[in-house]
Write a structure and sequence with these properties.
single chain, alpha+beta, Nuclear Transport Factor 2, Chain: A, 3 domains, five-stranded antiparallel sheet
Length: 354
Amino acid sequence: MDPITHLMTGAVLARSGFNRKAAYATLAMTLAAEAPDLDTLWSIRGPIAAFQHHRGWTHAFLGLPLEAAVVVGAVYLFHRWRLRRNKPTKHSAPLRWGLLYGFALIALLSHLLLDWTNNYGLRPFFPFNPHWYAGSLVFIFEPVIFGLLLIALIAPALFGLINSEVGARKAAFRGRDWAIAALIAIVALWGWRAVEQRQAIQLALNSQDFGSDPGSVPILHVYAEPYPANPFRWQVIVDTPDFYQLAAVDTFANTVATNPHSDIFYKPAETAATLAAKQSWLGHVYLDWSKLPLVTQSDTDPITGAITVTFRDLRFMYDTSFMQGREDPPLSGTVTLDSAHRVTRIKMDGHVQH
């Protein structure tokens, strides 16, 4: 999920009751809810390094205890700084550092859960099990979840202003009911989307629009990828031995729309160029992550003999309000090879790896 959603999730979790148990709970849980994304610092070493390490050990169960310790340690240093600066140290809740550590772990787990629900996925058992897991229930940025969290954070302040106008006493802890309601609504949304996802897959399986002869085409897997906001709209990918076929499924109208001319992607045969590209740094990282890779090569340059091999993931090859998946698929990479099939350039999402 996006960083703002993670941060707001930590704050809403704290307001659901944890902030009543230990001082600095809101600060610690907000920081911890976003802490795993510190792996984006690998982007300093280039786009492939960032891609390789994103959602690695910082998103694994093994790394959470250390991350919780770092977060609580940072909060402790902040507390000591306030004491040295003679800042007010009165707290509405008692100082309980051990309890705060447990709350940070809960916030860190919320990060893993949110990332699992989208279609990028994560590796929670890394490094012992490098397998990627993705629920594909919601889009990487989900406006409905964002809105629920934002309301839970803003509404108590707005109602607090109204109460202050009428002279009501200001509560020490505000927004608990709003926070709990928002969290329940998010869980309900996931459940609703899981039902719609299964229905989308079933509609695709029952459709007679796949392949030139549907009865003779064995289906290996069927995947349903989410659109933002609309729980009834899904991009379904049917995986067969020879090709992938995409379809737009509407579970509300019970319709499956696919075009055999533009929605079928045949699995290309291996060539010396694609095999060499798959042995590159990008190739190893991409094929480790991608669930539905499409690896294609360009025509050979008649002057230099260079060939460009493109890596795309079919899970993201559809258009939304946030991306143009057909024209410019996100999370795509290219490997350029010379006439001897040696790697001369690697790019990820349009950025060259130096």
